[in-house]
Amino acid sequence: MSQINRLVGGQVDRDQTLNFTFDGKPYQGHAGDTLASALLANGVRLMARSFKYHRPRGVLTAGSEEPNAMFELRDGARREPNTRATTSELFDGLIAKSQNKIGSLSFDFMAINDQFSNFLTAGFYYKTFMWPAAFWEKVYEPIIRRAAGLGSISLQDDPDDYDRGFLHCDLLIIGAGPAGLAAALTAGRAGAQVILADEDFTLGGRLNSERLNFADQSGSDWAVQTLAELVGLPNVRVMARTTVLGAFDHGIYGALERVSDHLLQPAPGKPRQMLWRIYAKGSLLCAGATERPIAFENNDRPGIMLAGAMRSYANRWAVTPANEVAVFTNNDDGHRTATDLHAKGVSIAAVIDIRPDAPQSQHYEVIAGGQVINSRGRLGLKSIDIALPGGDIRRLSCGALGVSGGWNPNVHLTSHHRGRPEWMPKIAAFGPPAEGPAGLRIAGAAKGDLSTAGALRGGAEQAHGWLKDLGFTPTTLDLPETEDAHISITPFWAVKGCKRAWLDQQNDVTVKDVELAHKENFISVEHLKRYTTLGMATDQGKTSNMGGLAIMAELTGKAIPEVGTTIFRPPYTPTAIGAFAGRDQGKKFRPTRRTPSHVWAEEQGAVFVEVGMWLRAQWFPKEGETDWRQSVAREVLATRKSVGICDVTTLGKIDVQGADAAIFLNKIYCNGFAKLAIGKTRYGLMLREDGIAMDDGTAARLAADHFVVTTTTANAVSVFRHMEFARQCLWPNLDVQLISTTEAWAQYAVAGPNARQLLQKVVDPEFDLSNDSFPFMACANITVCGGLRARLFRISFSGELAYEIAVPTPYGDAMIRRLMQAGIEFDATPYGTEALGVMRIEKGHAAGSELNGTTTALNLGMARMVSKAKDSIGSTLSERSGLNGEDALKLVGLRPVNFSDPIPAGSHLMRKGDPVDAAHDQGYVTSACFSPNLGHAIALALVTSGDSRMGEILRLVSPLTGFDHDVEVVSAHFIDPEGERLRA
Amino acid sequence: MHDLTANTALGGAAPRVDHHGPVILSEEPGFALASVSARRDRQRATVLAIRRMIGPSAPKTGHWAGDRVTAFCTGPEQWILAAPYDSEEFLFERAKREVKGNASVTEQTGAWCTFDLRGTDLAAVMERLCPINMASFKAGSAIRSSIDHLSCFVLCRTKNHISIFGPRSSAVSLHHSLLTAIQAAF
């Protein structure tokens, strides 16, 4: 089929023919077409099936307010449902499919619903499916879910990228119609930073849809000329295909740019869509207005559309929906459609104007005082029935009907801060609220100025005002003379007595549904919306809300403003979730952190684990090892036997300097630090203000006024934040400076009996590592490998003779290689976080599983660390009686009575013979592992009065898994309880 | 002289350079860095010390200054000094000497990775990365901003040259973000 409904003129590029398919059938259109205009050009009126009744539907509008013509666009993973044909730019290779049907579009089996419309009225699902109750989950709900919705998603990962960005401007102008262009020109010439954003791909708004004279040129030519000047101004950013979707706080707007939606697929590296955050000093809403329909019986047939849309198709896209059209209107604007289409050679069957004094035409018949009361045509309009002023009914053949019930200002963004639209009697519509978002002003049709000259004038004036407020010196724009007609409108919402007259075509809400809502007392606009679903779904009621409110007003005997209106929320038009996610998806959801030894660890085949954002080596499998526990056991045994090396860079490091650094740490830690000698390191415990343990680590004193604090990996950021809060807010008079050095130093634990010998090979000889010169808990600035500055700490997490050596991070990779090379003679073994965990459990060191946000120093066996000789954060509240009872939990060790039994972490402990319930709970396992040194499972546990229950046999239970066996309470120190190894 | 070889933040032996469209993205490992934070009531003396190191004025909030040795403001009474690593490896020690106890100095050389963007219309890249107002981001500006969740310092060297300092451990992620933005922009 060729483009049988293509007219002359228009703004499509006839030199570029584009091929596309609809439901598998090939068609052609031109560059500049939308999918809707191209289908109409090809004589396709039937485009969709309605949501509930599966009624045949065609296109109603020519913009983003479209409720009917929605498609599944593209195929495969890129298939996107519910895409509006009216905003989908045609491209070569476009694949469009109709949706919400069983069978074909022209023969939809689900159309049977229309025969049962009496049962499917508003809220029918609240009243039906009540019996039998057991049917709900298995029968009714699946059926309803199957029937609900329109299109379907591909269920495949979206192959495209989405992006986001940030823009700043003096003036954001939303909408590039006559008001927006005049505003942008005023602001652009004044030198302001301007962003002009419009959702359309061809800017100009209604100037492209009308036949208007702008002095000696057409309105669309003026738009082209104005845009050319704007694009040439370096201070103006013109953003087509960009919908400003929300007004947020402090002059921030969200805008979606459809970067690649007009292409078969995005160019390499380019996003499909971009979500912009726009920071605007001032903003001007020039979003125009949306035409509204008039409700009459069967007003939803394909071919019945808004009169303004019919004009857009004719003037911009050179398309008519049919060879013979009629217009039904209550205002002068409807007559424009007939005039314009007649000028394009389309036969005008008649203009039916409800006003008895409607203007007449010499070119076509005008039925003044008439009303369209019904329509006919199964899959597309064939004729309409007209009630003539004298009472007779006349049937008129036509293939399309343009309907104009007046225009509603697009005030949506003005409601985003809960402003409620206000009634404007002059245009019989809701206009912007008195108090919208701060900094958002309105011009043009969005403000109710429905004439073109009024829009130009309003845009220029509002921009002028903004510029003066922002400190610019604007000049007055020399505006072209153009149409400035007063719009005469007689409010008319629905033909009297109609029932199956559609108000909301997307949700199949009829006049009858509103009447039902009224009968059942859902008369508040909010109840009306939710009971009938009027104004919901993708179009958010842009063409339907007013009709529903007007019907409800009539039923309740109120004026429309008394009934009120619902308000609007972002986004203005449907926005893909992918656009909100932007680049933050999959592995790019958040950044990763790599340790200095990462490349080397990869070379060793390390298995990594995410710890916070860090990627840490979990273990280093060797050939022949088939189970991770084999690797971990090998690493543990090798470390305890000779020496092991572990990257501990991830532990937080905070440089604490200042004359009051010691006083500061004395307040931060619950144990004393004021008297820590230079060159010494001390284990420290931080409490929260409520006395609960917060974090532990070490503080090394490198000078009288210089400490290096270490934190756990997980709490590095929160501890730094906590210390900054204390420094700035609690004790601002202390002379203390903090800076994180976690990233600055690559730090390796070197642990095991041969640790000293290994280190002596890399530490420069002038530094004596002997036990006398560098004893347990010593620290020093040293040099390694012939002069590289380094730090050495003799601290041990494993319980072995151990050191942590730090070098500047750029040398971290070289250092691990050097350590491993130097360790060959000692069979030095790299170990990961699993072996680290095993060794600390064997040693009985508390870690994150024990410092779990519920435990106190007393619970952890560190009560004596909370100094009574000073004040520190949390020390006072740690003395609360509730935290210090006789039956307090205490950290102990556990081992199975039968050594072959495992000890799962999280299991609970019960006395033998007691029932297994919360009332008899004796505690729980916090950390557990298999100890390769002891040859059986071991665990750390918090047990009621645990320190006095050594040797007691308890039941280890897990009601969830059915676990139940005996364990013995033992010391938490399974290895070297006297600490001889670490002091060796 | 020690015999260890430094690697770059991206893990290579040599800095990585990417060309795309009009933009060159280069890893810049050659900086020695040191933080300087004035001690209580010693701001004036600290500013004078920074002047001695970088030139006529210490940069104020939102700015960087200097020539061979530069400084950018990182917070109230806080700066980071930067200088060529080859000649100023011990910048932090020099800074300690200059501040004479009036400020706390910490070596930061290994803490940061640095990427430079060179080319025309860098605003098209930056607006995809962070909320800096590029219209007012002129030579001499230094702003702390979040780039894909990473806290970075962004310095405008010239109209066509921007330096970005980010956390070294996330250099791979930051590089990916920068390259993605460049490819999206051009």
Can you tell me the CATH topology of the largest domain in chain B?
Answer: Gyrase A, domain 2
CATH architecture of the domain at 162-289 and 409-469 in chain A: 3-Layer(bba) Sandwich
Number of helices of chain B: 5
CATH homologous superfamily heading of the domain at 162-289 and 409-469 in chain A = FAD/NAD(P)-binding domain
Total beta strands of chain A: 50
What's the CATH C level of the domain at 162-289 and 409-469 in chain A? Answer: Alpha Beta
Supply Rg of chain B: 16 Å
- Rounded to the nearest angstrom, the radius of gyration of chain A is 38 Å
Helices and strands of chain B: which structural class?
alpha+beta
The oligomerization state is heterodimer
Helix segment tally of chain A: 20
Shape of chain A: elongated
The CATH topology of the domain at 162-289 and 409-469 in chain A: FAD/NAD(P)-binding domain
Low-pLDDT runs of 5+ residues of chain A are none
Helix content class of chain B: 10-25%
Count of distinct strands of chain B: 11
Distance between the terminal alpha carbons of chain A, to the nearest Å?
93 Å
| Percent range of helical residues of chain A | 10-25%
- Any idea what the CATH architecture of the largest domain in chain B is? 2-Layer Sandwich
Please provide a written account of the structure.
The complex is a heterodimer of chains A (984) and B (186). Chain A is α+β, with helices and mostly antiparallel strands and 984 residues long. Among the domains of chain A are: 162-289 and 409-469, FAD/NAD(P)-binding domain (3-Layer(bba) Sandwich); 593-650 and 744-839, Probable tRNA modification gtpase trme, domain 1 (Gyrase A, domain 2), CATH 3.30.1360.120; 652-740, Alpha-Beta Plaits; 886-984, Aminomethyltransferase beta-barrel domains (Elongation Factor Tu (Ef-tu), domain 3). Chain A has 20 helices and 50 strands. In chain A, strands 8, 9, 12, 13, 14, 15 and 28 form a seven-stranded mixed beta sheet that branches. In chain A, strands 41-42-43-40-34-44 form a six-stranded mixed beta sheet. The termini of chain A are far apart. Chain B has 186 residues and is of the alpha+beta class. Chain B has two domains: 17-29 and 111-185, 2-Layer Sandwich (Gyrase A, domain 2); 31-109, Aminomethyltransferase beta-barrel domains (Alpha-Beta Plaits), CATH 3.30.70. Chain B is 24% helix and 37% strand. Chain B is built from five helices and eleven strands, in the order E-E-E-H-E-E-E-H-H-E-E-H-E-E-E-H. Chain B has helices at 43-54, 85-88, 91-99, 123-126, 171-185; strands at residues 17-20, 23-27, 31-38, 64-66, 70-75, 78-84, 103-107, 112-119, 142-147, 150-158, 161-167. In chain B, the strands form two sheets. Chain B has a six-stranded antiparallel beta sheet, with helices on one face. The relative contact order of chain B is 0.19. Classes of the chains: A alpha+beta (984), B alpha+beta (186). The interface between A and B is large, with 63 and 51 residues.
